[in-house]
Structure formats: structure tokens, C-alpha cells
Amino acid sequence: MLEKFMESYKLLIIIPVIITIISLGLVAFNGLNEGIDLKGGSLAVLDMNQPTASSSLEAQLKNSLNEQGLGIEEVDVLSNKGTDISVQIGSEVNSTAFNEALNGTGTVTSYNAIGPILSEEAMTQVYWAMAFAFLFMSITVFIIFREPVPSIAVILAAASDIIISMGGMSLFNIPLSIASVGALLMLIGYSVDTDILLTTRLLKRKEGTVVERAREAMKTGMTMSISAIASMVVLYLVTILLIPEAVTLSNIAAVLIIGLVADILTTWLMNLGILRWHMEARR
Q: Are residues 30 and 45 both part of a single domain?
């Protein structure tokens, strides 16, 4: 199978490229749902007097808050476990107004509001974190390999992983938050690990044929990726089925699952293909 890939690698490079372009389109036209820590808003944990349907609670809170002249457009129930309910509001609302909106049907046990200034500052920090992560990763890769084509291939693979992950977040409505940004930064590390493994085996080792070296790299890299994916799938299922209020953990796991699957494509189709192309051109 690997031998056939090595023969038709130029065509297979196109697959992750197409997926990356589609993901860019999803982010551009569908956008990303920002969490309250990045766009501002309010998050409350409620202890209701009796089990309440999510839709009826959303309608009650929205109507009551708008009657107070707050102009609320977005009220979402994040988790509903009978009488324990987590609610997110797309605007900053003080706790007094929120208690009045409940109208005696429950009490607020935890409350957090983030204003537009703090959310704008958080968004700025996100941009700087992503920019510095890519900058220092790129510098490190160029120092290690000291060749433009292999270095650019590693950087392209990492960028594609992030773009595909963001496309998945847009498609499955996973919010962009401080936590999910942390997951995206982790993906840069995962991507660079497998790409550097592949590039080192192919370019720096001389024993065996190119196909044999690529096969050994794939065995190690796929073991790493599948192990990481399996652990994230377990985390996602546990949080969804047993701890539904742990939305942050399930979002992190979902982002990592998408990114790790994307990394398999970008490493073993795109990066391996580019390296094979580069090695042929050097002969």
C-alpha cells in the first residue's frame, strides 16, 4: 500500500489541500461561535425548584430580561440535569437582574459575567498566542533542518491541521474559547511531532530504502496519533455521558479529535508527498 502511495504521491497531496480549502470556506462563510470569555456575556449555574425543559427556561429568561429593558438576543442552556442547569447569555447581565428573571422558579448558585473590554483583551491575547506559537515553531523547524522545502512542508502541515480543526469547530458548532484555543495550540505540538519524526527518518537516516524509512516512521507516528485519538474519544464520551456540565472538557476533546485525524492526513499524505517530491528533485 505504501509503495503504491509513493508512486502516486503527487495526486494524494491534493486530498488534504482540498480539505484545508473547504475548512477555510467554512470558517469564512459560516464563522466560529465565540464563547463568552472571548465575546463577552454571562454564565450562570441554576438550582431550579423542579425539573425544567431547556426551551421553556430559555424563553422565560429571554422574555423576563427583555422586560427589564436589557435587549437580550441570545439565551442558551448548556447543560440540563433535572434541577441543575447551566445557562449562557450573549450579553453582560448583572446577577440581580438574573435573579429577578427567574421569578422564584430557582436560585443562582454560580454566576460569571464578562464585559466587552475583558473579552476584547482576551481575543487580542488569543491572536498573539497563535502568532508567537507559529513564529517560534517555524524558527525551530528551520534551525533543525536548514532546508527550505522540508521546513515549509512541516509548517504547512501544522497550519493545515489548525485550519481543518477550525473548520470542524465551525461545522459542529464548537465554540472558540480560551480552552479551545489551548487545544489548537496543543495541536501545533502534535503536528510538529509527527512531521519532524517523518522528516528526520527520511532525510537524515541513510539505512534502508526511502519506502522502508517511511514505513518505519509511519508505524511510530500512527501509534502516537491513534493512542492520542483514543484517549480523547474516551474523554469526550465520559464528559458527554457522565459529566454533561463539563462542557469545556468535551469541547477540548472534540477539537483535539478533529485535529489529530487531520494530522494523519496532512502528515502521511501531504508532508510525505512533498518530501518524496523534494528527494526526487535533489537527485
A: no
Summarised one tens digit per residue, pLDDT across range 10-48 is 777 888 999 999 999 999 999 888 777 676 677 777 888
One domain, residues 91 and 220: no
At 46, the amino acid letter reads L
Q: Write out the DSSP string of 145-183.
A: H--HHHHHHHHHHHHHHHHHHHHHHHHTT--B-HHHHHH
Q: Helix, strand or coil for residue 208? A: coil
Strands 75-81 and 84-89: antiparallel
Measure the CA–CA gap between 131 and 195, rounded to whole angstroms.
Answer: 20
Measured CA to CA, the distance from residue 227 to residue 229 in angstroms comes to: 6
Query: Which has the higher per-residue pLDDT, 257 or 14?
Result: 257
CATH of the domain at 6: 1.20.1640.10
Split into its structural domains, the chain has a count of 2
Mark whether 124 and 228 lie in a shared domain.
yes
Farthest CA pair distance, the chain: 78
Distances (CA, A) of 232 to 42, 174, 239, 249, 258: 28, 15, 11, 10, 10
- Condensed to tens digits (0 to 9), the pLDDT of residues 152-174 reads 888 899 999 999 999 999 999 88
E strands in 21-102: 41-48, 75-81, 84-89
